[in-house]
Design goal:
The chain crosses the membrane at residues 30-51, 57-79, 91-113, 133-154, 175-194, 200-217, 238-256, 268-286, 307-326, 332-352, 379-402. GO terms for molecular function: hydrolase activity, hydrolyzing O-glycosyl compounds. InterPro entries: GH, Glycosyl_Hydrolase_39. The protein is an alpha/beta fold. It folds into three domains: 14-393, no CATH class; 404-772, Glycosidases (TIM Barrel, Alpha-Beta Barrel); 781-866, Immunoglobulin-like, CATH 2.60.40. It is 45% helix and 11% strand. The chain is built from 26 helices and 19 strands. Helix 2 (26-46) crosses helix 7, helix 11 (264-283) crosses helix 13 (329-352) and helix 13 (329-352) packs across helix 14.
Length: 878
């Protein structure tokens, strides 16, 4: 790996290494190497907490993990010394090559830390954003540089090979800041993965005992002069390392989590990371080792390292008592957000750094490692600031673009679905079940809680305060049955207890639950490992019957009159009756793309099992997103002859359609976001019409799988966007408009997702005035526009001219204010604004004149309550 165009000759240490440690027995060298391997394991696995729950004494740790780190570490230290690439920049790039094992062995950067498809902070193309930090920051520093620096500390004779590493054990301001940062960032990670204080103590005992024993056994080798053999393997040893790693990569790549294997193109792209790191090393200049006497040794260095380790583990032990507390995740998420861009930056700096050593006679005056680190620190600061500025600029640009992606046209649905009859008994008469507003507030962990196990109670209270009668919960199969089918007769696992608590809390607040369950793909990451997958990286489980069994268990436990209802004394008055089967199965993260027929099999089997437990249950599906991509996939779930499924599905030879199984057709729509991404107006009406058109087209096209026309369409996820690009005032106005347009199209339920405080006020006002907003009719032709341009809808209380009604009117966007005359039947009307204000306005000769405020994007509607007398139609408090 000689640098191109370099005048420095390649350094050949082979003759020196053969004579080093001549007076030290080979067994002492072996003990020293085992000690160094243990130090690497501590820095990589203890500091990340990765092996703590399982235990450092576990056979997997001792047989696989330890030797994985051992082989990688000594492979790259040997290559570093033999090629002369030992500057700090070069060592960083060796560490990047070390960290890339996460792409092949564990597949972390492609498939999440658990190999389950769950990426902590989303993705950059095919790679996990936060997971890339393992390659470009964590392993180069924690698994290579830090343990190598500690090795140079316990064996001072190695400092001549790696003089730059003195920085890590020094006492400069940069080092202090670095150590303070580690004390802030590492303890929460260790605590989170510790398995509790007792388990952490057991691991620390093992750490200390093994360190003590190996240190005693290897002391003669560590104290000897010129003991390069500790970190530089000979020819036979190096060949052994290579053979071991080749076998390890081959066996684990194909045998360990094969579902995480990406496509060939992604594998080739990963090869670019290797190539860039190797080219960077090739560009660096080979350097001579420094004489031992030229590298300063501070006797206080080891004391500082020991003090740091004690403080770090003490903090971790204290925090381990709070494992699972949401506050612990704040520094962890901050780390993840920082590490990836910082890792990219440091890798780029290391790539361009030529790695030339300072002259030996100037080492004390101006140490080379301090020069590099000081510059790197400054550059990292500027770089992080630049990256932050870039992200802020991109985010601002996205905000601006989405904020300007307000639909320009809202065409009226030509044949809206008729209003449901008043006597409809959907849901078996459960109280509040017919309410058309579904709360969808906060985050979910897939087992009854919020993200990271936080409480959902405040979210439920927010929904109650808005006057809602529905809430939402997503339930992940992989979270509820991670290790195999659960037998609830033998005990209730913690995940099921948490879900019980959520349902009980919803009952206490008189909220029905739209249970999105079972969720296999999306954020759930796919089926649990024990159920297998029909295709790598996709949702369809190999064992589809196990998924149907899980759906049956949920229905038996949570239906009205089910196990939980009997235990709580609800009998049949409360329970879960609406089940949405998976989340955006056609596209979102782990998906059923190319497995539409498999999804139909899932819906058919799950529906059968749920309805066997509760004949009045509603099967809600498919929960697809908005966009042109939805139509062909959705048609494939209804096209029995097409058999657009996995090879396993085709081999089984069975046919399925979601048409007969689905009671409620669900879809998602983010009007602003979907308009932005689709490039044309993607309103809730257009999204609804696309899905409705497919279901009506396939009503009788699959012989033996015909179904009657669907009447129930629910909007079960959506907002204007999910980044808040539209101001709160405009979003509150949008809520009024969105509800009105959706109900006018015939959509039976709409979701109230993550409403801001001003939106909550608007929702409460709308729900109070229109608890049953049917029939909602377009009525722009029934008003007189005196000035400007306006839109009008009306919701009738009943039939006949004298029936009470509620007008919903607003100025047309970007046309300025509008003045209108409304025909009314009462002698006064009540005006309700999006801000919740109520104003009485008298009528004159059967008309009311209103001035509607304009807005370029989202004019605020008003509700005009027009009823001849109190008690006519739905009552409101005037």
């Amino acid at each position: 790996m000689e640098s191109k165009g370099s005048s420095t000759q390649r350094v050949d240490h082979s003759s020196e290494l053969s004579s080093n440690c001549a007076n030290v027995s080979w067994i002492r060298i072996v003990w020293a190497r085992l000690l160094v391997g243990w130090i690497v394991l501590i820095c990589a696995e203890v500091f990340s907490g990765a092996s703590l729950k399982m235990g450092l004494w576990h056979p997997w740790t001792l047989i696989v993990t330890y030797w994985l780190y051992f082989a990688h570490f000594f492979l790259f230290t040997t290559l570093a010394v033999r090629t002369g690439r030992t500057s700090l920049a070069s060592l960083y790039l060796w560490g990047v090559l070390f960290g890339l094992y996460e792409s092949w062995i564990t597949k972390v950067i492609w498939h999440g830390y658990g190999g389950d498809g769950k990426l902590v902070l989303g993705s950059i193309g095919p790679y996990g954003f936060s997971e890339l930090s393992m390659v470009f920051l964590f392993h180069p520093v924690a698994s290579f540089l830090l343990p190598l620096a500690v090795t140079c500390l316990v064996c001072p004779s190695l400092r001549g090979l790696f003089p730059d590493l003195v920085w890590f054990t020094g006492k400069t301001r940069g080092v202090r800041l670095f150590l303070c940062y580690l004390l802030f960032s590492l303890p929460p990670i260790i605590a989170m993965n510790s398995g509790g204080p007792l388990n952490l103590v057991r691991n620390l005992v093992v750490v200390i005992v093994v360190l003590f024993v190996l240190n005693r056994l290897s002391r003669p080798a560590l104290a000897g002069p010129n003991c390069d053999r500790i970190v530089v393997f000979g020819r036979r040893g190096f060949v052994g390392l290579c053979i071991y790693l080749v076998l390890l990569y081959l066996v684990t790549y194909f045998g360990l989590r094969p579902e995480g294997m990406p496509s060939a193109s992604v594998q080739l792209a990963t090869g670019v990371f290797y190539a860039l790191a190797i080219i960077g090393l090739w560009r660096h200049t080979a350097r001579e080792p420094m004489p031992d006497e030229s590298v300063p040794v501070d006797p206080m260095e080891m004391r500082r390292v020991k003090t740091f380790f004690v403080v770090l583990m003490s903090l971790s032990l204290v925090l381990s008592s709070f494992a699972g507390w949401p506050g612990l995740f704040v520094p962890i998420m901050l780390n993840f957000a920082l590490w990836t861009p910082l890792g990219f930056l440091l890798t780029i700096l290391a790539w361009f750094r030529d790695g030339k050593a300072s002259p030996n006679d100037k080492l004390d005056e101006e140490p080379q490692p301090r020069s590099f680190l000081r510059r790197a620190t400054r550059l990292a600061g500027f770089g992080c600031g630049g990256v932050g500025l870039l992200f802020a600029t991109l985010l601002g640009l996205i905000y601006i673009l989405i904020g300007h992606s307000v639909p320009k046209t809202y065409p009226t649905i030509e044949h809206p679905i008729a209003a449901p009859p008043l006597a409809a008994n959907l849901g078996g008469g459960l109280e509040g079940f017919d309410s058309p507003y579904v709360g969808h507030t906060g985050s979910w962990d897939g087992k009854g809680g919020g993200m990271f196990g936080s409480s959902k109670l405040s979210d439920l209270d927010t929904e109650v305060a808005m006057g809602l009668r529905w809430t939402f919960m997503s339930v992940y199969w992989s979270s509820m049955e991670p290790d195999g089918p659960v037998d609830l007769s033998k005990g209730i696992p913690p995940a099921w207890q948490a879900l019980d608590s959520f349902v009980i809390a919803a009952h206490q607040r008189q909220l029905n639950v739209l249970m999105q369950a079972p969720v296999v793909g999306g954020n759930a990451g796919g089926p649990p490992p024990w159920a297998g997958r029909r295709e790598p990286g996709k949702s369809a489980p190999e064992n589809m019957d196990a998924l149907a069994d899980f759906a049956s268990k949920l229905a038996e436990r949570y239906r009205p009159g089910g196990t939980l209802a009997q235990r709580e004394g609800w009998d049949t008055s409360y329970g879960i009756r609406a089940w949405e089967l998976d989340n955006e199965p056609e596209a979102y993260r782990t998906h059923w793309k190319g497995q539409a027929a498999d999804y139909a099999e899932f819906v058919a089997k799950a529906s059968s099992r749920i309805k066997a437990a509760d004949p009045q249950a509603l099967i809600v599906a498919p929960g697809v997103a908005s966009g042109d991509h939805v139509v062909p996939w959705l048609e494939s779930t209804l096209d029995v002859e097409g058999k657009n499924g996995s090879p396993t599905f085709k081999q089984n030879g069975n046919s399925y359609s979601i048409g007969p199984a689905v009671d409620v057709v669900s879809f998602h729509n983010y009007e602003g976001l979907d308009t932005f991404f689709s490039g044309h107006d993607m309103t809730v009406g257009r999204a609804f019409q696309k899905v409705r058109g497919v279901f009506e087209k396939w009503e009788d096209r699959s012989l033996g799988y015909e179904y009657s026309r669907k009447k129930e369409y629910w909007h079960t996820e959506g907002n204007f966007d999910f980044v808040g690009a539209l101001s709160e005032e405009r979003r509150a106005a949008w809520r009024f408009q969105f509800f009105t347009r959706a109900f006018a199209a015939g959509i039976r339920k709409v979701v109230v997702m993550d409403a801001s405080p001003l939106e909550q006020i608007a929702v409460k006002a709308y729900v109070e005035v229109l608890p049953r907003p049917f029939p909602m009719l377009a009525a722009s032709d029934q008003i007189e526009v005196v000035d400007g341009s306006a839109v009008a809808f009306q919701c009738l209380d009943g039939d006949g001219v004298e029936a009470g009604r509620v007008w919903i009117v607003w100025a047309q966007a970007d046309t300025g204010d509008a003045m209108i005359d409304l025909p009314v039947i009462g002698d006064h009307v009540q005006i309700v604004s999006v801000g919740g204000q109520r104003e009485m306005k008298p009528a004159s000769q059967g008309r009311v004149r209103l001035l509607l405020g304009g807005d370029p994007k989202m004019p605020a509607p008003v509700l005009v309550v027009d009823r001849a007398k109190e008690g006519s139609g739905a009552e409101i408090d005037i």
